Amino acid sequence: MRIRSIKEKIILFPGESEKWFTIKNDYIYIKSSGRISIYFNRINFELPSEVSGIIQCCYGSFSIQNIDNRPVYLQGIQFSCAIKMNNNFFTTVFDQIPFELMLMSGQSTETNCKDILSTLENLKNSQVIKQVKIDRNKIDSRLIQINRYIRKNYYLQISLTDLADLIGVHPTYLSNTYSKVFKISPIYYINQLRMNMARELLAHPQLSVNKIATTVGYGSISQFSSIFKRFHSISPTQFREDVLNMIEPRL
C-alpha cells in the first residue's frame, strides 16, 4: 500500500472547486463538513455533509465542488494498493476508524495501513458491493428537507417516525427512498454524524464519556457505548486512549 497524499482541512468556499489527479485504480477517502459534488470517471454524484466515502478511480482528474451555501472543510487520503474493486466503485458504508486515525496523526503507520487494507478486503468480499448507479431523476425536495434537518438537529432525540411526520409520509417510505438517493439510511446517517462529533469530543480529556454521550444525542452512556462499538469495534474509552497516545508525542 502506498500513501500518495494526506489532505487536511482544505477550505472550499461556495461554488469553488478542487481538483486532484489520480493514477489508475487509486483510492480516495474523502470527507467534507458540507455538501459537495464529486466528478470522476465521467460520473457525478453528491456527498452529503459529514458523510465519508471511499472511491476507486481510473487515471485522470477527481474534481470536488462545494455546493453548500457556506464554506466547507475537505479532508482526504489518496493511496494505491493491489486490491481492485468493480468499475466506478464508491461506498459510504465501511469502517472509518483507520482512515480517521490516519487523518488525526497526519501520517501513515504500519497498523493503519494494515487496517485499511483489511477494510478494503472486507468490502471486496462483501456481496452487497454493487457498481454505482447514479439516479439521474430529480431528487424529491422533501428528502433534501429531511437531510438538512438531520444535519442541523442530529444531537436531538430523533426517530424515523419523527422524520416521516415532518414531511407527511410513512416511515418505511421515507427510509427506502432516502436510502436509495443518499446511499445511506436516515437513522444510520444520524448515528454517523453523532459518531463524527463524538470522535472529536473524545480527543478532549476534560469531557467525561457520559457528557459526550448526552451532547451528541444519546439518552444513556450504555446506548452510546453500544453504538460506538458497532461503528468502531472498540469502546469510547479505548478510542480516547488510542487518540491521546497518538497526539501526545506531537505536543
Task: Furnish the topology, listing elements before pairings.
Blueprint: E1 2-12, E2 17-22, E3 27-32, E4 36-40, E5 43-47, E6 53-56, E7 60-66, E8 72-80, E9 90-91, H1 97-105, H2 110-125, H3 141-153, H4 160-167, H5 171-182, H6 186-202, H7 209-215, H8 221-232, H9 236-247
Helix pairs in contact: 1-2, 4-5, 7-8
How would you explain this protein's 3D organization?
With 251 residues, the protein is α+β, with helices and mostly antiparallel strands. The protein is 42% helix and 22% strand. A hairpin with a 2-residue loop joins strand 4 and strand 5. It is globular and about 45 Å long. Mean pLDDT is 82; it is low at 127-137.
Brief summary of the model shown:
This protein has 251 residues and is α+β, with helices and mostly antiparallel strands.
